[in-house]
């Protein structure tokens, strides 16, 4: 082994001598990085601002004393995540679960692609077998990974790492299902006939679970043994499995003695509400969406060989959210400045509850389309009103007293209270102010809370100052 290392070092020295660097230290040359603005996002240039209450603390909560802080540049969604965008996440998850069940059954039956035997000699469940079902057709690298990692699985999931075959489309028409095994898998995704009504078969949404992994870098960095004992690193890699379908019953549970059944029945799935912000999503579900969005984009970049992967999509920190909401205005009460919620023509500037019992004075009863009203200075829509928004930060009333002045955040995993910002369609104007803090529990969904995502910016540094 020592001889091999010595030979490798000598070989690398020969290669270096034969290069064009003339023996000078020129650094490792890579491809030139060109930052790409994510679709539907806008760049929020980093800078410093006065975080906290811009006026008197009328509610006397005393949880947001003014403090000057600085945040780095980041991209942010111009609008809240819409029903249409979240439905793509739900459909992708459902599609993946169906494909996984088909592949597992094909694996148990020993069926391979192209076996025939389906209706009229056509496709069979074998055509949905794992993409790595035939190791002989793999590249040397894929075959090594299959034999040493993918085919082994884990105690919790024996099929972990197996590649799904996404090249063949799923058959949605029950009359065209290829064989009885396909029927069995598809039938397992729906509620029993006894639980269906109006002649409609309904997908069992409790089976729509998205699983992802993440690394608890905060805890790993504080572990003094992590750097010397690499085996400990694995204990900071966490696996999450989340039911991702929105809780549509929040439209009824959030309001007693109120008729909101139409919103419960139609709001999430009907195309009429496709461009409206998704609600009924917990903090945990919002985090899962961020992980999926990252996976989706990186899977595409991986198919385009040579393209670097992107930074992860994530929820904004509380400081990032407030900085973005201010839109470059210092010490303003609202994203548009203020101190009023109307413009000079008497028109409301956001979707909220202007008067006691009067939800419609601003032109809307419930939510409005995500791209409604005028955007702020960073081209962000509805940073106040419409739906309140999850942030990544945990809520602590005393947080402003101890958080850092550089990229402040409270990433306390043990604190289940998460900061919610911006106010919503059912809130009074106090909650629309950019300095107002509120919270909700991470596992709780509401008919008035949604979210938007951010992504760290890489490239030439720029600030808004």
Automatic annotation (TrEMBL):
Report if keyword Zinc-finger is assigned: no
Q: Where are the transmembrane segments?
A: none
Residue ranges occupied by any Sulfatase-modifying factor enzyme-like domain in the UniProt entry: 40-94, 239-454
Q: Which residues form the signal peptide?
A: 1-21
Q: What SUPFAM superfamilies does its record include?
A: C-type lectin-like
* Keywords, comma-separated and alphabetical: Lipoprotein, Signal
Instruction: Cite the InterPro entries for this sequence.
Output: CTDL_fold, Glid_motil-assoc_lipo_GldK, Sulfatase_Mod_Factor_Kinase, SUMF_dom, SUMF_sf
| Lipoprotein in keyword set | yes
Superkingdom field: Bacteria
GO function terms (MF aspect): formylglycine-generating oxidase activity
This chain belongs to the protein called Gliding motility lipoprotein GldK
Source species: Flavobacterium kingsejongi
């Amino acid at each position: 082994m020592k001889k091999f290392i010595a030979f490798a070092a000598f070989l690398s020295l020969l290669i270096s001598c034969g290069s064009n660097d003339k023996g000078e230290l020129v650094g490792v040359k890579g491809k030139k990085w060109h930052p790409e603005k994510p679709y539907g996002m806008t760049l929020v240039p980093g800078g410093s601002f006065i975080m906290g209450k811009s006026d008197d603390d009328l509610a006397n909560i005393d949880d947001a004393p003014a403090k000057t802080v600085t945040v780095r540049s980041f991209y942010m969604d111009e609008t809240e995540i819409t029903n249409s965008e979240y439905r793509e996440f739900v459909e992708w998850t459902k599609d993946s679960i169906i494909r996984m069940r088909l592949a597992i059954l094909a694996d148990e039956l020993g069926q391979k692609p192209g076996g025939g035997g389906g209706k009229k000699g056509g496709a069979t469940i074998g055509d949905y077998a794992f993409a790595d079902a035939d190791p002989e057709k793999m590249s040397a690298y894929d075959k090594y990974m299959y034999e040493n990692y993918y085919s082994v699985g884990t105690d919790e999931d024996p099929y972990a790492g197996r590649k799904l075959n996404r090249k063949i489309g799923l058959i949605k028409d029950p009359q065209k299902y290829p064989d009885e095994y396909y029927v069995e898998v598809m039938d397992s995704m729906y509620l029993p006939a006894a639980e269906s009504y109006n002649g409609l078969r309904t997908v069992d949404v409790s089976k729509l679970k998205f699983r992802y992994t993440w690394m608890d870098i905060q805890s790993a960095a504080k572990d003094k043994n992590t750097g010397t004992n690499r085996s400990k690193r694995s204990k900071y890699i966490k696996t999450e499995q989340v039911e991702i379908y929105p809780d549509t019953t929040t439209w009824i549970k959030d309001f007693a003695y109120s008729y909101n059944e139409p919103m419960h029945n139609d709001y999430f799935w009907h195309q009429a509400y496709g461009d409206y912000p998704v609600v009924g999503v917990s903090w945990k579900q919002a985090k899962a969406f961020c992980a999926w969005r990252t996976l989706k984009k990186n899977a595409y970049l991986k198919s385009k060989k040579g393209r670097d992967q992107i930074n992860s999509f994530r929820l904004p920190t509380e400081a990032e959210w407030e900085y973005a909401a201010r839109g470059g205005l210092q010490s303003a009460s609202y994203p548009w400045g203020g101190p009023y919620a109307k413009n000079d023509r008497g028109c409301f500037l956001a979707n909220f509850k202007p008067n006691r019992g009067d939800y419609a004075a601003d032109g809307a009863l419930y939510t409005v389309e995500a791209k409604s009203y005028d955007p702020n200075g960073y081209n962000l829509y509805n940073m106040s009103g419409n739906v309140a928004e999850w942030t990544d930060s945990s809520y602590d009333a005393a947080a402003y007293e101890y958080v850092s002045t550089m990229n402040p955040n409270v990433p306390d995993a043990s604190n289940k209270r998460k900061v919610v910002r911006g106010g919503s369609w059912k809130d009074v104007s106090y909650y629309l102010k950019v300095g107002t803090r509120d919270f909700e529990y991470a596992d709780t969904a509401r008919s008035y809370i949604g979210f938007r995502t951010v992504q760290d910016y890489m490239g030439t540094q720029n600030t808004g100052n």
